[in-house]
């Protein structure tokens, strides 16, 4: 076979292979697909071997081997995909919820599952790299002061109430920062624990950031981000409002009712858009509402500050009631419960469209939580600073006590030569260890948050459902229909709760490695508990109203919270000195000194000099400038893409207008086209092929616009794919508008032969 | 080509995996659910068809207002009675699966909504569509006045060439902008 023939054959084989890979994208019947598949496979099998011919025995063997490996690889990939899908937990559960409540409620559970996965990975990092090494290779409990309960607390260390407060044995365990030893390397493997601790802390944020951004990018892809709101409202309501996952008659009825309501509302809305109400009254009410809400936000912030300050006073006393000990957490959770309904009631004054009102509501709840969290943090910082001051005094005191102890010992033994045994660890005077204190605060906050959430579900949903159900028999009005009736699942409230919970975990995980474990357990139990609660006590929403694009909205919130929780941790790492006697960084001036130490001692010498050059301001400033320039450049490139996108849209619109004009205009402008039209079978639906389209489209399109073009043209070409009803052999949709080489869509369109040149008529 | 007895052959299974968007477990589950609906004799025969009324007992389709249209669209029966073979059933599930592309979904959505099968969505198609969506009872239906208003609004939005009907390309243009479509146009067994 000649070279040309071989090349052509190879091309055909490639084409068939692409066909096989894409065959499921074609809207054909199964029979047709099967025949095509068999045909294509037979062709490939027959000729692939032949292609190897004439190149020598080994080359042929190699070729056959390669082919077999590719087949095996494809099969392996498919099996792996199957395996991966089988591993996803809770599919059945979520599907059940979906069929009863629709996809918006189920999206909360899908989000919960995603969070669970992320937390599981964080848990793996923390435990695998920090906790397990310390437990296995580090010193055991009781050997050094930081790992032992002080003598004074030992009698109460096992009490349940003390443990619930995370004092006693809990405080001096792997759960908290203070337990970890500052030895540079531990065990046979010379595991560098302090370095690992710091790296895991930073890696937690890095990994979370990566995962959140990757998910956001994936969601943005599917959403088709740049459609304007309000375009196609009616058409979308009509074509996309039904949720095909609904499998339950009651939910279906609800959906019918809500669709009807939304139709009627939109019809009325259209007509009312012209009406001009009393705009001044409306504005005044809105300003008033915002003012009231700001007041309540400020009030809640102040309340938290006040309570935290009070808890510092309480810390000095001993006779505290349960309420006084947990006051901070109780107040914070209560505020989280009470304020959102309050905001909703105030928002009645504003009279916005429900979708906008929901956005405002979410924004306000977000501000509430954020304000609370940061006030809490600031109050905590005050406490930390006080502890730091205390530390200095205690440091001196403990050195003094040590000297005294040795002096006493040598006096008693009357022998100044003998080395005294080290002081019993529980007797050593301890510093205040502010990091563990911060960790304990976060753990207590998380635990109380969990308790409040579960209690709310139990009382707010379950007890309510039980009451409505059983009291209905002997009550004057119909409890189920009027008030209080069964609860609806509050999607946005729950999602926000989850997001903020995660923020607290991110903030606290550096100081309390055990917090991640607590969170993983919490998410796991939440999944089962909430699934049960939703199926058992909730009814489907009456107003099924999709805050669509909300997936990315919640991810955006998560990203924001990630940044905001990163700030305090980074601040403390950079500026505050670690405690002198607890934690893996004790004795150092700053926490990140451990990195310097590692660079000096562990890495080869040239890396040390490399890093010192890199830290030179003369290098950093140009690097920063370069990055700023790069951002500016990318920004302007994306602007250019947007502009060209708009241009193309306008062109499409223009082309359609021309088509419309031409159709209305009985004189066709081109004689050739008129003849062709006469030849075509009489299909009133097939628009005339786009042939005489004058070439105003500048052929010289800069390559930059290719991606944009590719997207639109992709759509055009697939319109050509076999729709058995609409198009005949001659009627092709708006034809080649300058496709790039090897136009998108590949083989498959009727008449889309190879080599569609720019603007040439299709070869037919 | 078709299923015999109660087991799917391995070759057939891998072919189906090539040709549809479904995973192996999904195909096997679909096969199980399909054969459950067959009677004893039908199970032994090759290439048996399930009549439409039995398919509509599936809980996933039972509450769907478009269930009959779906069966008609995916059916390859020469009598046009909406009965499905196993392969038609797989086609259905593949088009409604999570991994199906937007083009496939919009193509089939268009055919489902085209009640009179003439290749375009005209006024009567749209009216039947709205009636399906608003339920059976009289109190949920729209008045004729509202119906007219609604249909004219829809045509104004989506009919680009102003011929009074929505054809496939206009439909796909509208649908591709919708953020909800792909996630709601899903059926999972």
From TrEMBL, chain A:
The chain crosses the membrane at residues 120-141, 195-213, 287-308, 328-349, 361-381, 504-524, 553-574, 610-634. Residues 745-756 have a biased composition (Gly residues). It comes from the Eukaryota. Residues 652-764 are annotated as: Disordered. Pfam families: TMC. The keyword GTP-binding does not apply. InterPro entries: TMC, TMC_dom. It is found in: Membrane. Keywords: Membrane, Transmembrane, Transmembrane helix. Residues 652-665 have a biased composition (Basic and acidic residues). It comes from Sphaeramia orbicularis. This is Transmembrane channel-like protein. One of its GO terms (molecular function) is mechanosensitive monoatomic ion channel activity. It is a multi-pass membrane protein. Residues 731-744 have a biased composition (Pro residues). GO terms for biological process: detection of mechanical stimulus involved in sensory perception of sound; vestibular reflex. One of its GO terms (cellular component) is plasma membrane. PANTHER family: TRANSMEMBRANE CHANNEL-LIKE PROTEIN 2, TRANSMEMBRANE CHANNEL-RELATED.
From TrEMBL, chain B:
InterPro entries: CIBP (IPR051433), EF-hand-dom_pair (IPR011992), EF_Hand_1_Ca_BS (IPR018247), EF_hand_dom (IPR002048). The keyword 4Fe-4S does not apply. The keyword Acyltransferase does not apply. Pfam families: EF-hand_7. Keywords: Calcium, Magnesium, Metal-binding, Repeat. Transmembrane segments: none annotated. Gene3D superfamilies: EF-hand. GO terms for molecular function: calcium ion binding; magnesium ion binding. Residues 101-136, 146-181 form the EF-hand domain. PANTHER family: CALCIUM AND INTEGRIN BINDING FAMILY MEMBER 1, CALCIUM AND INTEGRIN BINDING FAMILY MEMBER 2. This is EF-hand domain-containing protein. It comes from Sphaeramia orbicularis (orbiculate cardinalfish).
